[in-house]
Amino acid sequence: MPELRTEADPRRWKALIFIALAQLMVVLDATIVNIALPSAQADLGISDGNRQWVITAYALAFGGLLLFGGRISDLWGRKRAFVTGLIGFAAASALGGAAVNTGMLLGARALQGVFGALLAPAALSLLAVLFTEAKERAKAFGVFGAIAGAGGGVGLILGGLFTEYLNWRWTFFVNIPFAIVAAAGAISVIREPAEGRNPSKLDIPGVILATLGLVSLVYGFTRAESDGWSSGMTIGLFAAAAVLLGVFLLVERTVKAPLLPLRVLTDRNRGGVYISLGLAAIAMFGLFLFLTYYLQIVRGFSPVKTGLAFLPMIAMMITGSTQIGTRLMTRVPARWLMGPGFLLAAAGMVLLTQIDLDTSYATVVLPGLMMMGLGMGTAFMPAMSLATHGVQPRDAGVASAMVNTSQQVGGAIGTALLNTIAASATTDYFKSHMAGATNQKVLTFQSMVHGYSTAVWWAVGILSLSALVAVVFVNANPGGGSAASSADGETAEDAIPVMAH
């Protein structure tokens, strides 16, 4: 293996600005369209049956192609994949903003997912190869982790502003200046170490099996939300996903140049990070959706006011990531940042289970959101850094893709699972209280709030499990070395010096 370049790139901090900008664009796009969806549906005449596809088309393409995108990043080089992803994402966004019918909008969303799947792993793996010194890496991933955690909330705010004061189309057009600035900056300042590329031939069977398996899995949870968990289509999709992904793992054990080298998964630190982030995404994605519905439908908040209600959470996420995570990462084992961080976020969720028809935002919702933001920011920062812990430079792209895959699949699971739980609890509450109700509208709102609270309790449990996984599996110590070498037997000197081994 070629000897890695040891001198630091003098333009790495400028590069971080453009990498972070691209990451913000990808993350906020996951939520910015949600608030604009009712307006887009009315404008384009999208049927209720097709409405979900505005979200699902993006999720299927993005989640299904992430591993492929990560491998392309390793093959082409991260800078080329990064710039290509940005340009393609901007073009797809322009197409979505100019959509004149349902098919055009859905096609644009799918294209956004395709280029997002190329862009997201390239961004994270660029950080892995540009920042190798422990303290600098902590600062860089602190910024990246804050953006990854807060981007969804930023999307809710921008979606509300654009929908209320401009037009739903601006939720697409806003990506264009982001992409142009990030691409121009990347071309001028990013210099990627050439020895980090993986010139092996592309694993075509692996690409087909992984893509079809992940698409089946994500779509299965989407259909479970609309058709129910016991429907033939839902069960068939889950069965297909299990078979396809099982065969994929068998293929990856035998091919010479696998799409996903199993050494990436079997390292306990990386595996622990992927599982804990996936569980956290299950809890967080569902919660954002419930709170948005609660504030707008039950409390009557406008789209803008709803978006601004999430602003304190974003501020606390940034604080947790850049001030707590960054300062402590080189001094405290990562598990003692991730575990307590997720538990603090779970405690914030417990507060949010107390919501009612007239709950005060200032005394219940606000402190709950702030605790969640601080906890998630503190946990996300070391998690993002450890995602490429001890990985070979040639595998940095696919290891980074696994972070996004775990979050994307987790988000799909969370939206479907928690929505199903909430809907069932809402229906049961309404039926059991219908006989004695004097005001059916009030009962409807009470039933909705009961459903939200029930689902949030499930989210509390899932996030607590995420904390447990982090404490049990993650044993890297950024300040004093790692308790384990990488899974394929490399020493720290052979791998990217992700931590100060």
Automatic annotation (TrEMBL):
Topological category with respect to the lipid bilayer: Multi-pass membrane protein
Ranges annotated as spanning the membrane: 15-37, 52-69, 81-104, 110-131, 143-162, 168-190, 202-222, 228-251, 272-295, 307-324, 336-355, 361-384, 455-476
Keywords carried by this UniProt record: Antibiotic resistance, Cell membrane, Membrane, Transmembrane, Transmembrane helix, Transport
Alphabetized Pfam families for the sequence: MFS_1
Subcellular location(s) per record: Cell membrane
Entry-linked PANTHER family: BLR6921 PROTEIN (PTHR42718:SF46), MAJOR FACILITATOR SUPERFAMILY MULTIDRUG TRANSPORTER MFSC (PTHR42718)
The name this protein goes by in its record: MFS transporter
Organism, scientific name: Streptomyces hesseae
